[in-house]
């Protein structure tokens, strides 16, 4: 190689273009699995385009066929969704005791499976839960933000014909949901009426059960008799239970003391369900969405003060880690562990307004934002004998992908809807191949009805801004109450590898990259011309 003059001597910006080109031509090109310019292919017009990896897909199909022959049934799927648990909370993600709460069970599962370092949720509860159930981004279903008290009682819910549990049910699965739903409380919207055979859990968010009865935030609702009666009747203050076709009935009241036992009760229900499947070859889908660690946290008495830091959130993390260990043990006892795809993830980043009752993210922003802190979530896939232990991947994964991936491992990809646009990408080969590569080239960031930006490889290009400093809200700095505005000067481009905290937008330096990212955004927006969104895009 010719000796290249140091740019500092010449002054890079004063170099003529020809000289720059000749330097570029002399530099060796790195051989990599780069996805920046990767080609994507859509199998049908209504399916999100993905990166094809023919060999890995063939290996995966053979692997699934072998497993089916070995176990005599399709694989079970267990999805554990934690609430507001942050990227930095688990030991394997740099958290654990370092941030005040050990997570030995979760860490062991990650070490025996695949840890995803670039998995994405939506910015808050309801939208993420909707994407997992539908394989569609929230703008397509209208489930854009958390349902607040009173809002889930009518109107919008899921289309029961196309949910993941209904599709798996059509593919021969028993479908059980345990835990937090947050996708509508009225009868037709309840889990057991949109695809699950049976439901046991809490229909809304944990704080809906406590906020009205917390001395520090709502003393008027506690001490005024009429207001107290009204508040008490305002929500379904109970764990509820129901089977397909029924309206869920109240089975276990929730108050300021019994809320401490909710995650224990949910876990018992989940492990009882798993035990009940011991003698059947019928595959099952168990969706277990925990109460914790949504604020405000009230750990089980066995876990009060048991975390290193002794804060309620941290105690609940220790409890949840224990509960996840119980689920894993019950799968083993029922002889189902080896034929089960087990996924653990969280529905959004930490709710930092509740600090110190909140999680830890190494990124910028938090729940409610499209900064990495709001949407990059810990995600672990575990399947003994099928997922090689000890893998860590930086491949892109969107929680919408659970939909198509679950149908794929169930041998039911032919059940993917044809009448609507599906954002979910089948990532089964990514999960099941040793050192597998993601099929996803782009993450699209949405905040409510605004398309915020896109990530491809290490580049994140934001076409809108999100700010969370206000004079008229409390807390004054609230990611959850952030506002979206157009980004000035044509967008902000971050390199997440060298700037994971999105501190330095490098748009002027990265002009050559911008067209690739803009093209992806425009292509994504075009899907809404062909398949109009439920709500107008901002
Ligand atoms: Ca949440």
Write the layout of secondary structure elements.
Elements: H1 7-10, H2 17-26, H3 54-71, E1 76-82, H4 104-111, E2 114-120, H5 125-134, H6 138-141, H7 164-170, E3 174-179, E4 198-201, H8 219-223, H9 225-234, E5 238-243, E6 249-253, H10 262-276, E7 284-289, H11 312-333, E8 340-346, H12 372-375, E9 379-382, E10 391-398, H13 401-409, H14 428-432, E11 442-447, E12 450-456, E13 459-462, E14 464-467, E15 483-486, E16 492-495, H15 514-530
Parallel strand pairs: 1-7, 1-8, 2-10, 3-4, 3-7
Antiparallel strand pairs: 2-9, 4-5, 5-6, 8-9, 11-12, 12-13, 13-16, 14-15
The chain binds calcium ion.
The site of calcium ion (CA) has 6 residues, from loops.
Description:
With 538 residues, the chain is an alpha/beta fold. It has two domains: 18-50 and 444-530, Arylsulfatase, C-terminal domain (2-Layer Sandwich); 73-425, Alkaline Phosphatase, subunit A, CATH 3.40.720.10. Helix content is 28%, strand content 17%. It has helices at 7-10, 17-26, 54-71, 104-111, 125-134, 138-141, 164-170, 219-223, 225-234, 262-276, 312-333, 372-375, 401-409, 428-432, 514-530, and strands spanning 76-82, 114-120, 174-179, 198-201, 238-243, 249-253, 284-289, 340-346, 379-382, 391-398, 442-447, 450-456, 459-462, 464-467, 483-486, 492-495. The strands form three sheets. A ten-stranded mixed β-sheet has the order 6-5-4-3-7-1-8-9-2-10, with helices on both faces. The chain has a four-stranded antiparallel β-sheet with strand order 11-12-13-16, with helices on one face. A two-stranded antiparallel sheet has the order 14-15. A hairpin with a 2-residue loop joins strand 12 and strand 13 (459-462). Bound molecules: calcium ion. The site of calcium ion has 6 residues, from loops.
